[in-house]
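Reviewer 2 asked us to include a model.

Predict the structure of this chain.
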Amino acid sequence: MTNIFLIGIPGGMELFVILFVVLLLFGGKKIPELMRGVGKGIREFNSARATIESEIKEGMKDSEKKEIEDKKA
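Predicted model (structure tokens):
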């Protein structure tokens, strides 16, 4: 049986190679622009996650209110 957990987080040398390849592909001037795009994507993702989370919580509160009203009626 193969252990699937052997594929994990890259270590020191692997990170160095990845960073070197990124530097070669994009060049020094494009990396800040690339990182801004990544940061913007992360912010948008977190905003969407928070919106969905609040909608779910609101829906749960509404369903609890309906249950309480149904029990009173």
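DSSP finds one helix and no strands in the chain. Residues 12-72 form the longest helix (61 residues). We have added this to the supplementary material.
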